[in-house]
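thought: fold this chain, then report.
action: predict
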Amino acid sequence: MGQRTVSVPKSISKTAKKGTSNESFSLKLSIFSTEIGWCGLMGNSEGVERLLMGHHSAADVRQAAKQVFEEDHNDSINNFEETNWFPDLSERLQDYYQGAVVEFRDVKVSLPHMTKFQARVIRELKKIGYGKQITYGELATKAGAPRAARAVGTVMSTNRIPIIIPCHRVVASGGKLGGFSSPQGTSLKQHLLTLESEAIQ
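observation:
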């Protein structure tokens, strides 16, 4: 399957709906079903801000979206609109979960308020291609902080955009999985690593 180029549609507005506050936080939410459960993409013209994945129902995704919006923006109004705002990326994610070899390095993401260290870790992580793995210590070294394996683990545990920022490819030394933040936990991490390994054989 060939890689498809994705860019965030310029027509997506950052402006909040009339009558709401915190207009700059206006987001779109797209909910779709995949092989691993229901997922949700949150973002706007700045890029993808969240990927919620592995939920049991669309309602669970909506509830999770409300919760993370409050956490991210300190706003209980839930200023986002549910719409199929990024259909091409949704389709690519569905293909990925079905076992297709899909890369997401071209996808524009929005990760404000990162430290310089976090930004370096994310930049190096996005270079880890499909079917590849790296340890927390190795990623720390690539990010210029060889003693910061534990700090890298913290960055991975707070990753808002899994798969697109492939934190599942970061494993502990000695062949251990390490952690994974998703409703299905490390069982989903193992599934994704196996999926990729089998696809490139």
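thought: worth noting. Residues 1-24 have pLDDT under 50 and may be disordered.
final: tokens above.
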